[in-house]
Design brief:
Residues 216-223 have low confidence and may be disordered. 37% of the residues lie in helices and 17% in strands. It starts with a helix and ends in a 14-residue tail after the last strand. It is built from 8 helices and 6 strands; from the N terminus they run αβααβαβαααβαββ. It has 223 residues and is of the alpha/beta class. It has a single domain (3-209), classed as Rossmann fold, CATH 3.40.50. The longest helix has 17 residues, at 135-151.
Length: 223
């Protein structure tokens, strides 16, 4: 296969975390709850959009939760190829569902539900909060959705605006890190993460780029 045909087989993916919310600052678990961006989050999204304005961008996909969709909308408004085209929202790109733990801070969970907190810290693959989603279920959902999106954009570059837990799953899929391994990579708000998809799977190009932000972005523990 020559290089031109090889390029047509791959899809470049910009995986972007939404901007900051008030609940990020509170370390409150958002999950599927629809929490909007705060002013800092909108500023972060604008800075991210400006940083990508000169890059080719053939489509923007987003979680349907407002903190991600507004971030994606700001990107589309600032990008010459996407201006006037709203992002395509998918509920399959939502954050992990944390069920009964949503709306609580990490300190709340440690104090009220120590057993659940321990199982969470251990990253037990088949454990889910009551009414929530396991890590295995999250991984499968995200892997399937990324494959579906990337297959439709071979030879192109797309943006996918999602959440911290989703990006954690994407990093593990692309790098081969075990689902139970402790995290040692950042999940900053409005960070730009670059991946390459091919029929053989995902690979990492770069991770955690926040050079477009003037101040350090928040790295959230798990939600």
């Amino acid at each position: 296969m020559n290089s031109d045909n090889g390029d047509m087989e791959v899809t470049r993916i910009l995986a972007i975390r939404h901007g900051e919310t008030a609940w990020n600052l509170d370390t409150r678990i958002q999950g599927h709850l629809d929490i909007p961006l705060n002013d800092t989050g909108r500023w972060q999204a604008r800075r991210m959009a400006q940083a990508l304005a000169d890059e080719p961008l053939h489509a923007i996909y987003s979680s349907d939760l407002s903190r991600a969709f507004e971030t994606a909308s700001i990107l589309s408004q600032h990008h010459p190829q996407q201006r006037g085209r709203p992002p395509v929202a998918h509920h399959q790109l939502r954050e992990r569902c944390f069920g009964s733990l949503e709306g609580q801070t990490w300190a709340d969970i440690e104090n009220r539900y120590p057993e659940e907190a321990l199982r969470w810290r251990r990253r037990e693959p088949d454990w889910a909060p009551t009414g929530g989603e396991t890590l295995v279920q999250l991984r499968h959902r995200i892997e399937q959705m990324l494959n579906n999106l990337a297959q439709g954009h071979r030879g192109e570059q797309i943006a996918v605006v999602v959440h911290g837990g989703v990006l954690d799953a994407i990093y593990r899929l692309a790098s081969g890190v075990d689902i139970r391994a402790p995290r040692n990579w950042h999940l900053g708000n409005a960070a730009i993460n670059r991946l390459l998809w091919s029929p053989d799977g995902l690979s990492l190009l770069s991770w955690g780029d926040t050079r477009h932000l003037d101040e350090e972005s928040l790295d959230e523990r798990s939600a």
